[in-house]
Amino acid sequence: MKKDISYMLLPTDLLEYFDVITVKELGDISTKKMVFHIQLEEKNQLPNCYIQSDFESKGFYTEKTIQDFPVRGKALYLNIKRRRWRSKDKTLPDIKSDYSFIADGSKITKELSDFLKGTGRDPRRYNK
After folding, report:
1. Are 91 and 51 in contact (CB under 8 A)?
2. What is the DSSP string of 7-72?
3. 88-104 residue pLDDT tens
4. How, if at all, do strands 33-42 and 74-81 pair?
5. CA–CA dist 27, 88 (Å, integer)
6. For residues 82 and 42, is the Cβ–Cβ distance under 8 A?
7. Separation of CA 18 from chain center
8. Does the predicted model carry a pTM greater than 0.85?
């Protein structure tokens, strides 16, 4: 049994690829409400179909913030840092993992987007 409740709050399979670094409750100046920010960092695991000996982790791409389902009436933002993988001999382009939990063309999770579509609400209005 898992002792950490984060697996119940975060999108399906997210913790398979990311580690939770921090969880903070902060005030959002624009809405004047409290919100949750969870900082996630991609695990040091090369994406499938690449050979470990050919690539090395070289830091992270710029952090991306996406919105997920609210928790206890407060907005939940996931601050995601994805790893940058470089070819050791520098002949191949940088690679990064591709994750399906972010809705295409949006700043919200796919699960939240699907939920909003099902309720008749337009998810685009939640993309800030």
Report:
1. no
2. HHHSPTTHHHHEEEEEEEEEEETTTTEEEEEEEEEE-S-PPTTS-GGGEEEEEEPPPEEEEEEEET
3. 887 877 877 776 655 55
4. parallel
5. 43
6. yes
7. 8
8. no
